[in-house]
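Q: What structure does this chain adopt?
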Amino acid sequence: MSNYPVLVALSRDPIAEKLVFSLKDQALTFGVSLHSIGGQVGNGAYYVERFESNSHLDTAQREQLRSIAASFNADLCFLRSNLVPQDIRVLAMDMDSTLINIECIDEIADFTGKKSAVAEITEATMRGEIKDFKESLRRRVALLEGVHADALESVYRERLRPNPGAVELLAGANERGMYTLLVSGGFTFFTEKLRQQLGFKQTQANTLEIVDGKLTGKVLGEIVDGAAKAAHLDEACSRLGCTKANAITMGDGANDLIMMNGSGISVAYQAKPVVKEKADAAFDRVGLDAALLLIS
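A:
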C-alpha cells in the first residue's frame, strides 16, 4: 500500500458530483490523480466519499482542495493510507471552543467588565502570536481577581453549551470502548462538570485559586499548556500500551498543536488557520461527531 494520502470529503448534504469532478480536475493540475473508493455513503447525519491519491500533496495544494470542498459546503480531510481505524483507541480533545462553544475565561471576565481585554489576549494566543501560553494565562487570570466564585456556575449554566456533535461523539467513542481524555488550558471547574455530563474517562485542566468565595487572580499548581496536553496524552497511551499514533486528537488553537502532531488523526475544529494547515482534518461545516466516520 502507498504512503500517499486518502482524501475524505464530509458533508451534511449529499456530496455533489460536481464537487468530485472539481477535486479531481484541480488535483490533475498538480500532477496528481484521485480515484474514488467505494462511492458515497451516508449515516443519517453526514455523507462521506473517499479518494485515493497517487502522490503527496503539499500544504498549499491541500488548502486549494479544501477551498473547493468548502465552496460545495463540504469539509476535506487527508488521512494516512495505512491508517487502520480499529487501531484508534484514544480520543483526546481540547475544551474551550472545541468541545464547547465558549472560551470560559473570556466569559468569566465578562463579570468584571474586562471581557474584551481578556479576549484580546486569548485570541492572540490561539492564533500563535503570543508564544508563551503560561504567561498568557497568568496575565488573563490576573484580570479575574475579585470575581465571585458564583460567576463560574453562572457561566456553566447560562453560557456554556457543547458544540454540535459533542454529545454524539462522546457517546460513540465510549460505545467503542475508547479512552476519552479532555485536556484543557481552561479550568477544572468546567472540565469536571463535563466529565460527569459526557462521560470522559480523564480530564486535565488548571485550578483557579479561590479565597473567601472570590478568585484571587492566580492559578494553583503547574499550568496545563500545550506541552502538558501532549504529555497527558502520551501518559494515557502508555498506560494503555499504545502510542500517540493510536489516538485521534481534536483542537482549535496553537496550544493544541503539540498534542495533535504525530497523532493517528488530528482534527482542527472551527480552528485558527495555523491549526487547520497542520491538521489532517479541518471541520468547519460538520459537527464533532463526524470524526467517528474517520475511524469507522
